[in-house]
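Extended Data, panel c. Modelled sequence:
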Amino acid sequence: MKTVICYYSRHHGNTLKVLEAMAQEADVDLWDVTTRQTPDLEAYDCIGFASGIYGFAFHTAVAAFARQYLPRGKPVFFVYTYGAAKGTGSKDLSEIAREKGCAVLGEFSCRGYNTFGPFRLVGGIAKGHPDGEDLANGRNFYQNLKTIYQAGAWK
């Protein structure tokens, strides 16, 4: 299963750490949505979207990228990190996928170190995350996605 994960990861790089762990498992390309180039998403079997949670949702750059470039009918999945709360998580991206006839294979989330706003005053929250267990869970999630994809259970 040839996979690309289109992501936005800033601040502490929490989301990128999880994606790099997943990428160790197979043929996974990582694509930062803030670059000025666009990958040929048609060339991939499966497309992931990833971000930290900003204001209770995926970063707007990821949603805009999905809205513009996600091909119709491709299976998708979502990965996100969060400090205190998941918020609405992948709700916006799930809606974009539905509009484009894309099956959602699943989503993975874990806590990530956060020093935004008032959390900076207390030295941040979710210190040490994502940790080794989070990364192992991310790898397991991707292995399960491959099984689902290969079984054709998403069609």
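The mean pLDDT is 85. This feature is highlighted in the accompanying rendering.
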